[in-house]
Design brief:
mainly alpha, elongated
Length: 58
């Protein structure tokens, strides 16, 4: 249990950095490349889910 507790802070930091990076990529690349409309927003939301969900399992 103590080993898991020691890993909690680094994992939270990595998740925070990953979330910020994904948000920036989605806004500045994905959303603008897809045309800045409703469909682009939906695709960007999907990209957020895939990018945050799949990276943690690698």
């Amino acid at each position: 249990m103590w080993l898991l507790l020691d890993l909690a802070l680094p994992l939270l930091v990595l998740l925070l950095v990953q979330t910020i990076f994904v948000a920036l990529i989605n806004y500045f690349v994905t959303f603008k490349v897809l045309g800045k409309n409703y469909e682009a927003a939906v695709m960007s939301a999907g990209m957020c889910g895939i990018a945050i969900g799949s990276t943690q399992t690698l």
